[in-house]
Write a structure and sequence with these properties.
- InterPro entries: Capsule_biosynth_CapB, Mur-like_cat_sf.
- One of its GO terms (biological process) is capsule polysaccharide biosynthetic process.
- There is one protein chain.
- The chain has about 90 residues and is mainly alpha-helical.
- It is about 45% helix and about 10% strand.
- It is built from 2 helices and 3 strands.
- The protein has helices spanning about 1-25, 40-55; strands at about 60-65, 70, 75-80.
- The protein has a 3-stranded antiparallel sheet, covered by helices on one side.
- A hairpin with a 5-residue loop joins strand 2 and strand 3.
- The longest helix is centred in the N-terminal third of the chain and has 26 residues, at about 1-25.
- The radius of gyration is 18 Å and the shape is elongated.
């Protein structure tokens, strides 16, 4: 029983540290734009990213859906590989 308590405590502390580190990384991004809706999110995301890139902003975009992709600062796209079952 003591071993379960120790492992639970370790995992709890690890989870808290991970949450704090994640929040620091998220907060280091000065502007975040969330695109929501039923249809056209990938196209809208690409258009917003292209417009901001043309305006001189450093932009990283991510599309989800059937073909998830990361769109880098230079406009290059890389497919995202999902873990687990399709």
């Amino acid at each position: 029983m003591f071993i379960i308590f120790i492992f639970s405590t370790i995992f709890l502390i690890w989870g808290i540290v991970e949450q704090i580190n994640h929040q620091k990384r998220v907060n280091s991004i000065p502007i975040r734009i969330h695109v929501n809706g039923t249809r056209g999110k990938s196209t809208t995301t690409r258009l917003i990213a292209a417009g901001l890139r043309e305006a001189g902003f450093k932009v990283l975009a991510k599309t989800t859906g059937t073909l998830p992709r990361i769109i880098f600062e230079d406009g290059m796209e890389t497919p995202l590989k999902r873990r687990g079952n399709p």
